[in-house]
Amino acid sequence: MTTLKDISTIEDIQLMVDTFYDKVRQDDLLGPIFNDKLQDRWPMHLQKMYGFWQTILFDVRAYSGTPFPPHKQLPVDKTHFDRWVFLFNSSIDALFAGTITEEAKMRAANMAYMFNHKIDYFRNLENQ
Prior knowledge:
Radius of gyration: 15 Å
CATH architecture: Orthogonal Bundle
CATH topology: Globin-like
Distance between the termini: 56 Å
Keywords: Heme, Iron, Metal-binding, Transport
Strand content: under 5%
Shape: globular
Organism: Flavobacterium frigidimaris
Largest sheet: none
CATH superfamily: Globins
Pfam family, one: Bac_globin
InterPro entries: Globin-like_sf (IPR009050), Globin/Proto (IPR012292), Hemoglobin_trunc (IPR001486)
Protein name: Globin
Number of domains: 1
């Protein structure tokens, strides 16, 4: 049995992000939404995600911005976020193990919960 190493380098983050988004792009539920939104901008999105996760996990200022606004109008609900978390966790569990890996999974789950909550909040405001 191979022992998995923890996420520790930018190359690890790139592998994590690339593997995860390969699954997202091919997923029956998430793929159409992401592919329609990003179209030919996938390379730019992946670069942004490398910086985002480097900032989150390594406390390196590689990302600046506000990640929620681009997601606000997406046609998604809890089912989509649950799938997103499942794909994220299964992607990195196949590649890595350790403290930073667990931190990444916790952060992803928290972001999914927060994004879903905020999207619901704004939708409810619009429907009042």
